[in-house]
Amino acid sequence: MSARRGDASPPARWRLWAAFAGLFVSLALVWYLVRDPAASHEVAYSVAYGWIRDGKVRSLELSREVMEGRLAAPELVDGTSIQTFHSAVPAQDDTLMPLLHAHDVALHVHEEAGGAGRFLVSLLPWLLVIGGWWWWSARMRGSPLGGGLPQPLRHRARRFDGEATSATKFADVAGLGGAKRDLEEIVTYLKDPDRITALGAKVPRGVLLVGPPGTGKTLIARAVAGEADVPFFSITGSEFIELFVGVGAARVRELFADAKAAAPSIVFIDELDAVGRVRGAGIGGGHDEREQTLDQLLAEMDGFDRRDQVIVLAATNRPDVLDPALLRPGRFDRRVVIDLPALAARRDILAVHVRDKPLAPAVDLDEIAAMTPGFSGADLANLINEAALHALREHHAQIEAGDVSAAYDKIVLGDPRDARLDPDERQRVATHEAGHAVAAWASPNVEPPRRISILPRGMALGATEQAARDRHVTTRRELEARLAVLLAGHAAELLVLGEASTGAEHDLRSAMRLAEDMVAHYGMSDALGPVYYEHHERDVFLGHRIATDGGPSETTVHAIERAARDLITQARTAATAVLERHRATLDAL
Ligand code: ADP
Ligand code: MG
Ligand code: ZN
User: Fold this and answer.
1) Sheet bearing 80-88, strands edge to edge
2) What are the strands, taking DSSP E only, across 89-229?
3) What is the pLDDT of residues 19-57, one digit of tens each?
4) Computed from CA positions of residues 192, 195, 200, 205, in that sequence, does the dihedral angle turn out positive or negative?
5) Coil/strand/helix, residue 140
6) Rg for the chain (alpha carbons), in Å?
7) 478 has catalytic annotation
8) Cα–Cα distances in Å, from 81 out to 40, 84, 88, 588?
9) Residues 6+ away with beta carbon under 8 Å from 531
10) Residue among 183, 215, 219 to mutate when testing ligand 1 (max atoms within 8 A of CB)
11) pLDDT digits (tens, 9 = 90+) for 115-154
12) Closest ligand to 175 CA?
């Protein structure tokens, strides 16, 4: 930490030194407590796991992050014979505990990493943060707004320049051809501005990347910086919003000052909606800080000189809540829409993520891409990663097709659960799922069933999976068929067992949601006609609509509910009819 240059008053300087000393002492303490006197041997988790599986481990101390174990007999590792070992523990491995119990390993579980000393260690970062905060806010109070923040605390925009920017390239971003083309000209501008200005063309200064979470907005922004080989200043909208009055605005000022000094450069503001929400909206007060920050952001973008080679990229998944002032010419006037990947793009994204992983020849990326409509790039990356973890657990040398489908099941359905169902319950779950399956199979308007399971997984007791397809538009008839399939589980229970059960709750909730959307959003109700109502605003703190026009009237809400209920009743009648028609198939299942 360096002092504010020149004018630090004596008390401030004194506090600075105190903070220094405190930091030093804490670091020494951390080192002392963390160092391990009887250093046991560190082994890979897979090695430790193998020992447990082979029954070689006698006792184990387990905490959230590490395990320390003792072997029944010494083992040879890297030429040394060891009897105690430690290893990192992954956050999620549901097979570990059953294995430990199966082998009767003496188990000692710590909530924290160890005794009271380590508990103190875990508090230290908090003490430092609170101390720093107190010190800083004391300074802020003594100075006019943003009168100078200590240099390193000014903004947390991370700056990567020189080699570091080139880490991500367009080649790392799969799909998104249109977005890449749009951003290409920005790369050209940053690299060689004369080529653009020679034609008299103007390059947009602010580009807004709009799209659902996980579609690669952050990634492509990084890639632009990498391709242009310029410094990249990135900050998230929520980082701007601080508890200290005026600091958000001061940060914006300093961020842009740094970016201009380093020009050509890129400023990237992630989650723009956190700062850029419509002013004067929302419920309750406390938005002054955000509004000041937003005003400052607008002022900075207006203050660009024609010669400043600074491009501002921003990302959001809620363009609808942005303040219109942000979208005016000269600000974020270029929008690049980044959508969920279609089939070919999903294949390419998978290819990017398996580049550095050994893949069995039988694994077919086209097939994986075909079964993952609706997955974002981040979901696909996660799928591959889960498959790799599964392969590790199963001691496969390569990622095999089975690993991928296990990862897919885990992501889509949740983890297998160890719930024992008694035969009655199993019968009921089977009836329920068979209802969904028969209804889906019998209807030409929904995707056919692919697999049925009555093994409990995640939150559900059973599941019926329908083949997935890339859809952009869905018709009323298809939605009605989907409703019927949702209700078929409930209908089958009534039909076969004479009584409904709690098992239909989730189906009914989805059906109700869908029916309300059909009525209030898609104009599919004969009673209400083609209307759009903000029927279930999910987050009142986000919705400027609620604040400005108050949502639909009470009568309208009643009408929507009645129409939705009618749709559901019709759907159940339809489902029951289908099941009666195919009763033999249902019973056979
Ligand atoms: P967003 O900012 O849109 O929420 P990110 O850029 O943070 O999404 O994406 C998260 C991760 O998902 C990336 O780090 C990358 O591993 C993966 N990913 C997303 N989209 C793509 C893509 N088009 N190509 C390759 N990887 C992608
Ligand atoms: Mg992101
Ligand atoms: Zn169901």
Assistant:
1) 41-42, 80-88, 66-77, 57-62, 106-109
2) 106-109, 158-160, 206-210
3) 777 777 777 776 665 555 455 788 888 888 888 888 888
4) negative
5) helix
6) 30
7) no
8) 11, 10, 20, 61
9) 520, 523
10) 219
11) 555 666 677 778 887 777 776 665 554 443 344 444 444 4
12) 1
Q: How far is the CA of 380 from the centre of ligand 1 (A)?
A: 9
CB atoms within 10 A of CB 433: 24
Ligand 2 (single-atom ion) residues, CB below 5 Å: 218
Measured in Å, residue 214 CA sits from the centre of ligand 1 at: 5
Phi and psi for 578 in degrees, rounded to 5?
-60, -45
**C-alpha–C-alpha distance, residues 44 and 308, integer Å:** 51
SS3 labels along 95-114 = CHHHHHHHCCCEEEECCCCC
Q: Give the pair of three-digit tokens for residue 284.
A: 């309750």
In sequence order, the 6+-apart residues with CB closer than 8 A to the CB of 134 are none
Q: What share of the chain is helix, strand, coil (3-state, %, to 5)?
A: 50, 15, 35
262 neighbors 159 (Cβ within 8 angstroms):
yes
Calpha distance 249→256 (Å, rounded): 11
> Backbone phi, then psi, for 355, in 5-degree steps?
-50, -45
Task: Please compute, for residue 376, the number of CA atoms within 13 A of its CA located in the half-sphere on the CB side.
Answer: 11
- Given 254, 433, 480, 516, the catalytic residue: 433
* Distance between CA atoms of residues 216 and 222, nearest Å: 10
Q: Which residues lie with the beta carbon below 6 Å from any ligand 1 atom?
A: 173-176, 213-219, 315, 349, 352, 377-378, 381
Q: Work out whether strand 158-160 and strand 310-316 pair parallel, antiparallel, or are unpaired.
A: unpaired
Ligand 1 atom closest to 217 (CA): 3
Q: Please state whether the predicted TM-score (pTM) of the whole model is above 0.85.
A: no
CA distance 193 to 186: 9
